[in-house]
């Protein structure tokens, strides 16, 4: 079975290979458009198969039956398919017909163009028709574009290669379980990263979408969601993902997008994720110039939504081309129009206008909206006075591909209690760097959402700003005015630098050590004068004493026991997942439970444990549970897949099988645990090869020493660079040497070392090949017990150790601080002065001994 991860990797690799020098933001329209057309063709064939009552048939047989039925029933068949799908793809225009033409050598680009153009005429005239119209407009999919190839022949070749990329994917089967939708969304994200600044118009980074969506779904009973700057639809789909299955079934999706190609992408993305056309209302238009959607029953009132999410263009210039007035119902609440040079608040006010009385809105904007003055300051003041701003979340810089500036997520509500403070979260320092981009980790997202839900305050991270504070700051909401960044730098102590010793106040600030093992720490210190201490032993020894203390051991054992129970509980659940299992929900349950479990322990960051489990899902469980769900645990454990590799270049480029790999059991782990003797034998031979290489290198170095026996005997067989022996010269020189001489013996030794090394290299190669073959065969006959042991180790082998490590982590951090303090004050100023005086005296003594002749 091909998994979603394998599909993603294969399609993205294919995209990179095929697009050549074409800009990624342009190529995405071709690739994703043709991928969607394959989906429409597959859906047409599936609908025909079901309605005609055909049993098990091959795809080619199905196409043949569909062609015959079309010839016999004509428009009657078309209408039947339209009633089921809202559209149909005629037999001559099927994706499968393109593939047939490619295989027979009859392929023409014009046939693809004709098929795409014809689709418009196959859409049923119904309420759903707008959802499919214009999907393949020539402005988005111009197959005559020279960027696809400078000549017709080149374009034909490149388009054929792109069509073949999806040839073996059954889009209908992949749509089940959202595998197809996930792959599509992944490709959109990858194209966004490659597109740089051009990506801003169609993509919100996943981690930002997650924060917004997880907050938006805290609104109870979400029935309709709206994104006024919908882009690719990723934000709407992320909101959907976090709603329970019952709410998802009846969820209505609304979105508006100005860019036509991106508007098409939105519709394709929603349809591929299984959103029914009757639940999807997407419009191609300018969000600000004219309000949409309007409620026909209530003029001048927009349709209200339970959740509004948006990532609009930042600081859009000349946004008011329609010459809107403050009397526009969207802007009346603000009492003033946003400046024409910056459209940030215009988008915010549009979204707020469409927010239901009990709904939640999340919008991401540049930091400037928090503090800029003039009309923006007036709008901000009005929103705060009306109590609409609920939460402000500061995010790190460089999260987006199209801008490096830091951004904020603003959460707005219309049903806040009078006097309720504004929650401010500063998450700008919580990220990791991945390539050129900064990224929030899963634990960072979880902490933001938990802080929002619990309305909790944490020094240096979150604060509840009262009306009095906001008024004192004149409605300036710049985050540093409310949250002061923690200064982790310890100030220098002048007395300690002059006289030595570590300030006792710095020792007292080691809060975790003081509260857990203060006696052990105290026994390692000695007061040298009032307020200053010195260490009685090195920090390394103190660390050993502390980490081996019974209280730390007991705490570690308690966490180990709970972690083991947690793993054992989910071990059984994970092995028994099936097609009815909600894997996303299972992952969230595991994450929430580990966080709750670790929260019981003082001085442990539960979010670090959350990240450990999140990484297990990312690295193994997401892939493996998908395979297990489609068969069963032990069948998957005994299944192997062909390992396909690309060989050759250019015209000779081809895919060949290079062995096998376990569907879920890793080959390397299987070899380590079940073929340890063979691995040890290979390792011993490799060690001997290294020893021989070291012996040869010693002889090379000796041969460079003039007049040495080695130089006389081996100098002639050194290569030109003098860095190694030339094996072909050894036999020549041996023939010249007399047996029994030093020269002959040294040459013979080198010859023997070369022969031994060559034999060992061949033996290692043969052993490795034999081991690989043995592993390939062993996969097929693994016992249930062996699969249990191997998979337990793969999933959870280091998990308990990692959880226990969370006990030591804060202690080690403070011990590093202790080491730093000891180093800082080790050399006093008086000691440095004495050393300087000693050096001066020595220098003067040397000078006095100098005699001028």
TrEMBL record:
Keyword Nucleus: no
Assigned keywords, A-Z: Coiled coil, Endonuclease, Hydrolase, Methyltransferase, Nuclease, Restriction system, S-adenosyl-L-methionine, Transferase
Signal sequence annotation: none
UniProt-listed Enzyme Commission number(s): 2.1.1.72
Keyword Methyltransferase assigned: yes
GO BP: DNA restriction-modification system; methylation
A Pfam family: N6_Mtase
Reaction it catalyzes: a 2'-deoxyadenosine in DNA + S-adenosyl-L-methionine = an N(6)-methyl-2'-deoxyadenosine in DNA + S-adenosyl-L-homocysteine + H(+)
Coiled coil: 675-709
Molecular functions (GO terms): DNA binding; endonuclease activity; N-methyltransferase activity; site-specific DNA-methyltransferase (adenine-specific) activity
Residue intervals of the N6 adenine-specific DNA methyltransferase N-terminal domain: 7-164
Ranges for domain DNA methylase adenine-specific: 176-488
NCBIfam families per the UniProt record, alphabetical: hsdM
Family: Belongs to the N(4)/N(6)-methyltransferase family.
Protein name: site-specific DNA-methyltransferase (adenine-specific)
Source species: Paenibacillus elgii
